Amino acid sequence: MQNFLVEINSDGWAFLWNALATFSLSLCAAASILVIGWWVARRVSLSLARLLARQSRMDATLRPILCDICLWGIRIVAIIGALSQLGIQTASIVAVLGAAGLAIGLALQGTMQNIAAGIMLLLLRPFKVGDFIDGGAGSIAGTVEAVSLFTTRLTKPDGICEYVPNSLLWSNSIRNYSRNPTRRLDLEVEISMRDDVDRALQALRTLAAADPRALREPAPQVMVSRFDDSTAVLNIRVWSNVGAFWDMRWDLARQVRQTLTDAQCSLPLRSRELHIVQSATRVDAPAAGQTGPSTVRKPEQEV
Asked: Could you say which protein family the record assigns here (predicted)?
């Protein structure tokens, strides 16, 4: 080792020193480009978010998507610039990124499905921020807070935050409870079969029509839905605006019993009649001390 170091002349040491200094400068420049690029991307993304928030015509669903695209676009440019400072050619970078993208796409097919589903949700717009939706075969329900390329953030009725993959929403039917301005309330009421059904129907119609949140067109309807065990099931159908739907439902459900009581309709008590039919065959018990199968005696038939 000492002989090897002695054989290196001063020119060799100068070349190594210059190469190391050049690589150090390139490495520092690449690191600086990455740091500055990350800082600029963050600042531009926040500025774009504030700018879009002041635009009243800009949909709140598109804001996070545009901010994410701007953020990662600047970061990718910074990464390519940093690699160029290290002496890596741009054509090589593009080839490496293409091969890496293909490999990552094959390895993360589920993630790619979420990105594709997120793009389709943004294009077709089955819901927007602020809508209450029910999707995923009824297992997902909540108010939409944000839609990103990978997930959709929901707030459930009990206040819990839930992140749902976009592919799960896109592959199932979606119920949007906030898209239409009006909604119909269906409330079932039971009365006894001994009560006057017509009087109960008239009392419930008066109750539904008196509610100020009930729409006059379509008009409220009350009809006999079906007959169960000793009960008649009545159905109240009332249309209202979406914002007043639940308040009207709770109030009508609370007032229905008192309305039926005033109409002299009692609370039904479910009852069933059981008719026990005794079989004509009789099984005789074996006599004391007799061990053997019991005999079945059939009744004689009259001719």
From this structure: Belongs to the MscS (TC 1.A.23) family.
Separation CA 154–CA 151 (nearest Å)? 10
What value, to the nearest 5°, has the Cα angle with vertex 145 and ends 73 and 143?
150
CA 20/CA 16 separation, integer angstroms: 6
Say if CB 276 and CB 233 are below 8 A apart: no
State the pLDDT at residue 186: 93
Closest alpha carbon to 42 in 61, 62, 65, 70: 70
16 and 94 both lie in a single domain = yes
DSSP states along 132-154: EEEETTTTEEEEEEEE-SSEEEE
Tell me if residue 212 falls in helix, strand or coil: coil
Which of 178, 184, 187 has the alpha carbon at shortest distance from 243? 178
Task: Quote the domain boundaries for residue 200.
Answer: 182-262
Element holding 238 (H helix, E strand): strand 231-241
Q: What tokens appear for 200 in the block?
A: 């109960």
Amino acid at 244: A
Three-state DSSP state, 225: strand
Number of domains composing the chain: 3
Burial class (CB in 10 A: 0-12, 13-18, 19+), 19: exposed
140-187 residue pLDDT tens: 889 998 888 788 899 998 899 999 988 888 888 889 998 899 999 999
